[in-house]
């Protein structure tokens, strides 16, 4: 008892000193772990003096730390995991005071989604549709376009009306932008109707052109004349390309319409310079001379653009995105351009700036689009950034200014100073000007009234929005009411949680208490199964994952939330405590025993002794330690195991009954006897074995006078005899077929031997397997069957012709002399004899030679196989082709021979890669005798298999390399048969930095010109060599997009419904 009092005081002293100290050490991440380890160590310190059979209730309570003092409120910021009585820092701080109602819900105020007074409506960004949103806002603020679009004819409006055509979607979208109560609306209906990919950012300038063109065609079919030409009236202007001959002075003009002027900004500082370059005179001379119809010859001339009329809305595209020939991609020009608020176009009119479209970002393929738009009614400027609308206020208005996204370093280019009435931007890519109007115009002209059917649709949407706002407000209130009730519950129950001395108590999972106090987590029933040991009680190791609470508090929690099984004060497991006591005592004893065994092994001993595995002897301490760890873990929670299950103990070994099965088992043979491998075992004294036996009582025991396993000795002798027989067999077969083994004096079909008219055929696989056996008779299995059925079709016919054997199929077979065939018949089982005969006709004029096979050729299977091979060549995926770049036309002839040679070598390489076991191929199966069936192939190439089998045809004893030899200027590309030539050209562009329209491709002297054709239809097979000749590059970068529509990695609007008229 005195000892117990001392131990209890020791634990209490540690707790009283350590727990309050947490306040000072909370910033040290390891303090909580150190404290838990300290409590764990002190809680079990008594095992040093108490044996398992002496354990009492006081020891069990010490192990479960029942008597540790509870932490005071504010004493520790984190919960003391090792103390089951610490109820501080589990989430109670959020509930033990006055709480703001907003803390009880995570629902935003629905009124924040409501449109502010005297402002505009935003558009939702669906992923990468900011470029669409900017144009929609600009077009919406074009009052004439909006007013005219509202005049469009409409279908009957029903309750569940949904727009169908693109124009209907745009009409409905404009109506919502005008009169919706929402802060922003969803344009997904229009985007879906256009067929745009919301995940990929498209070319904004191309989208503007295509969309306006679509509207123009669609509206031209309307009955209302005001709608038929609204696009032309608003955006269309006219100019002419005027060319003047320098020789005769004749002038010719080619009129053209435009909807926007594309201005080059490279090398310019302001808009005036850009317009001047657009209209400047161009000289046509040299190779670029003009054909004069008056002079009937090419003459030097001048060309310029002459403006005839300008539209009310003038769109100026600043060409910021240009093609970079070196990289093969588009790039963005971050040049500062100054532009005026008022643009004087001379004799035409004066324009006022009405919108600036901006691209934020340094790349042409990513970034963000924003629009600065002027309100036509008030003259105020607004920034439209998807859902966010911001009025641009301040004395000094800065249009077109937005910070770049992900700019690596601060730009070295400083923003130039601008005069009053001018703005400067490095990100503006489109400027929208409108004709300056008089100030005395009728104000009602700016007020656009919605038609009744559109207003009805907007009212329906506003009604849905109001219902949603009310629903969200109700949900917020419900969450507040629920939170207040939870607040009162927690304050009441938390005061009841601590247990007083002498009162009954229960254990509750710590994680459940934390979730109960976390309002964001729905409280589930109490689950104690993770805390159970195999006896259905609280496991000692799980006391840190639980908290001891009063019986009254536990009763109320279970009544409200349910769960179980309940863990009361009677759930402290004395069996687990006893087992832990044994394990801890054994751990201490293990080190002493290891030293004793180590010293005993050094001594000489007399007597028989015992055989011990050397490997087990080297690692017995580790094995014993792992066994103790298993014993320590074996009473872990059972998740519902029967509580009646008990741990069987062995008093003679103090609980070490379940020894490591691996100890000494490596010297046990498969028959259960002593292994015949003497080098793997060691003889130790009886004293050493007795000590080891305490830790491994069920380990296999072999006394020193025990004989090795007789069965193993017999099998060892039989194996030696079998190896001797195999060696004799290999030597005999080698002597009988010496030339076949060394590949000497072999017959060939290309030069038929003079002294015989018949040769015999066997699979080359048989010969290779036989050679393996001859070289290593003890490591390889003898070959018993020839397996000639591999070379026959299902009908029993031969699969090769004499011509195909000469052209490439010979590598599938091996030719034998008649004398060798006689030996083969004696030594091996021959399933089918195959021979090829040379028949010479000496009667007819001149000697003619005919070759036949026995069995005869099966033409039906042969043709079917050839057809399948040709089809495989046209349906390949992920194959390799080689692109060889040539400089001059003359080099094509020079490399033609190399191309053909490389192609044939690549073809041979494919032929020497038959499919292997596991592939689903009708020509590949497993024969009855176990031999592998190789895929037969003729002289036509087959797709290369990922696993190659070395079946090399030998000619004259020289091994030919079948690998494609890459030459200088040649690159390999991965292609598929269904890939188009255009897609191949784009791959070549990235590999060689040659634009697609500068590429001249040919294969075997035949030009490849059809960009829409697939590679399979063009005869491009795997391992083909394609010749590339590059034209001289052009200097007009802007023209490259017009000549060939290439945007990588952009997809553009290829195939989009924008090209369809709805």
UniProtKB/TrEMBL annotation:
It catalyses: Thiol-dependent hydrolysis of ester, thioester, amide, peptide and isopeptide bonds formed by the C-terminal Gly of ubiquitin (a 76-residue protein attached to proteins as an intracellular targeting signal). GO terms for molecular function: cysteine-type deubiquitinase activity; cysteine-type endopeptidase activity. Residues 478-573 form the DUSP domain. It is an enzyme of class 3 (hydrolase). InterPro entries: DUSP-like_sf, Papain-like_cys_pep_sf, Pep_USP48, Pept_C19_DUSP, Peptidase_C19, Peptidase_C19_UCH, Ubiquitin-like_dom, Ubiquitin-like_domsf. Residues 975-1026 form the Ubiquitin-like domain. It holds the Pfam family DUSP. PROSITE patterns: DUSP, UBIQUITIN_2, USP_2, USP_3. Residues 121-436 form the USP domain. Its EC number is 3.4.19.12. Residues 1-21 form the signal peptide. This is Ubiquitin carboxyl-terminal hydrolase 48. Belongs to the peptidase C19 family. It is found in: Nucleus. Keywords: Hydrolase, Nucleus, Protease, Repeat, Signal, Thiol protease, Ubl conjugation pathway.
